[in-house]
Amino acid sequence: MIWLTWRQFRAPALASLAVLVVFGAGLVALGLVIRNGYDADVAGCVAPGCDPEEALDSFRDRMFTPVLLAGFLLVLVPGLIGAFWGAPLVARELETGTHRMVWNQGVTRTRWLAVKLGLLTVAAMVFTGALSLVLGWAVDPFDDVNGGRFDALLFPARGLVPVGYAAFAFVLGAALGLLTRRTLPAMALTLAAFVVLQVVVPVAVREHLMPAKTTTVVYDRTAATTGGARLNLKRGGDTVIEGYALPGAWVLSGRAPLVDASGTKLAGDQVLTCLHGDPAGDAACLDRLGARFEVTYQPAGRYWPFQWLETALYLLLAGLAAAVAFARIRRG
What we know:
The structure is a single chain. With 332 residues, the protein is mainly α. The chain folds into two domains: 2-208; 213-301, no CATH class. The protein is 67% helix and 7% strand. It has helices at 2-43, 52-96, 98-103, 109-146, 161-180, 183-205, 221-225, 268-272, 279-289, 303-330; strands at 213-218, 230-232, 240-242, 250-251, 255-257, 292-298. It has a three-stranded antiparallel sheet with strand order 1-6-4, with no helix packed on it. The protein has a three-stranded antiparallel sheet with strand order 2-3-5, with no helix packed on it. Strand 2 (230-232) and strand 3 form a beta hairpin. Helix 2 packs antiparallel against helix 6 (183-205). The relative contact order is 0.12.
C-alpha cells in the first residue's frame, strides 16, 4: 500500500518539490532584502540628523507589501493542497473505476483510505511547515519592529497554524471527493470551504479561544503618544477613545468611552474645556477630571498559546472530516 501510494503520488510530489524550491528561494531572497533594508535604514541610523522613528517608519512602509504578499501566498498553499492533493485522492479513483480493482484485493477499504490519508496528510503538513519556517526566518526582522503578530493578515501565515490548515484542507478535500464522487466539484467545494473558514475563524472564533483581559488606562500624554489613543468628541455627546494599542497585544476594543474616576461618561463639552493646545496643561486638566477608559485585549504573551489552540482546532476539524470519510467508504 505504501509503495502504491507513492507511485500514485509521485507527480504531485515532484511538482510540490519544485514549488517548494522556487517559493523557498523567493523567501530567502526576500529575507536578504529585509535584512539589508533593516541594516541600512534602522540599525544604520546613527548619523547626526537621522531620525530613528522616521527611519523605522520608512523601513516598515517599504517592506509591508512584499511581506504581506508572501504571507498571503503561504496561506493559499493549504487551500491548494486540499484542492489538488486531497480532492482527487478518492474522487479520481471513483471516476475512473479503478477503485473496484483496489477494493477487491486483500487490502480493506478502510486500510486503503487510512494509508493514503495518513501518509499524504503528513506530507502536506511537512511541506507547508517547511514553507512556514522559511517565511518566519525571512520576515523576522520586520516582525520584530512591526509588532502586530495577532493581526488578521499576519497571524495565519506564521508559526504552527499553516500546518493545521494544511492537514484540515487535505483531509477535507479527500472527504468531499468521496462524498461527491467527482474531482472538479470536490476541488471547488474544498477551496470554497477553506476560504470561508479563513474569514469566519479570525472574525468570530479566534478571539474567543482564550478569555480576554480588561484593564483601565488613564488618558494622559503617554496613552496619546505611545499608545496612539485618539479623542473622538462632539459637543453634547460622549467622548470616545479610538486607536489605542498595547505593545504586542491584540486589542479587541476598537472604541471605548472616556469616563471619570467614578465611571461616569465624560461629555464632549467637559473634555473640550481642557483642550487649549498646551500638552502639559491639557494633560493636567484631564487628570483632574480623572479621564480614563477600559481596554479589552489578549496579552502579547498569549501569541503561542493562540497558535497552538488554533492549530488544534483545525486538526480537530481534520479529524471530523476523516471520520466522515471513513463512515462513507464503509458504505461503498
